[in-house]
Amino acid sequence: MWISGTSQYAIRAVVHVAAHGVDAPVRVGPIAEALDVPRNYLSKTLHALARAGVLHSERGPRGGFQLTVPPSRLTLAQVTAPFEDVKRKHCLLGRPQCGGAHACAAHARWSSVSTALQQYFASTTIADLLDDARAGRTPPTVRARPTGGPRRATSRRP
Amino acid sequence: MWISGTSQYAIRAVVHVAAHGVDAPVRVGPIAEALDVPRNYLSKTLHALARAGVLHSERGPRGGFQLTVPPSRLTLAQVTAPFEDVKRKHCLLGRPQCGGAHACAAHARWSSVSTALQQYFASTTIADLLDDARAGRTPPTVRARPTGGPRRATSRRP
DNA sequence: GATATTTATCATATCGACATGATAAACACA
DNA sequence: TGTGTTTATCATGTCGATATGATAAATATC
Question: What is the pLDDT of residue B135?
Fold first, then answer.
């Protein structure tokens, strides 16, 4: 529901590349393992992102994927564009044209929600998600932790 | 995108029944023609709505479908419930559990949009759609049309 | 009860999203 | 130049949503 599984893969993969590919490219294998998604399918997805200009891909040893723009300039709309049409304002009831004289029954009330959806994808950046992932994960039970350093497990492989 | 085709059929069909089934039940055939959707598939969809308690179905001559509750008491959430899980707040990135300590990267910013979506389906009623369909369809170019009778082509098939 | 009408249901087909496995093409490096 | 590494691509498979056609079950009317 809401967006396709491929778009979800794309967002998660781009966030991963943004976090781990600052100096060296990130290969498909590690990304697929980290996200637990099928490797070859992710390969196709990343290739689509490369064609869309979101990622830069390099073959051979020392190859992999890197962002072409800083995370703060990369929106969810850009990342999902190859797989999802988030730019258009979709009619809730599926009409190709909806609005004005040809409005469907739900148009008036759906319109504001639809606009909010568009806004979300157009304004949220990968940098936002990186920040939230780091800051927003405070457990409900507040426990003062002296050194706020990186404590995450980053389990390499089993 | 956003909701399934079956859910769109369901909403449109229920609106049609609400508008045309005030005194007598409405049969599948006319509904399918009016909405231009496959007849037998719509039959299954309406049957699911009957099982869900949204519609009352009657077989045989003078049979058809009618609402079980007034349109002002029937929400989009109820109509789409058999086909879509709009009650749950879905994680944008597809996690089964998302929030609190196990929040995904997008959770914080997506949450408010997700809530707005839920609110829309929970608070919008079929009566709202009936009103909007009648009132909201004023064309930009105002042309007084005396008899607003059925003008659709209803082209059978080529 | 016989018949026509209408929904209910079954068996099957189609189509696109998602996935898999194998092979080709590019690249670094010795 | 040769070899290993990595992405790119192709051919195919699976699965669920959507759709189709035929048949069964219920109901009103005569």
Answer: 67
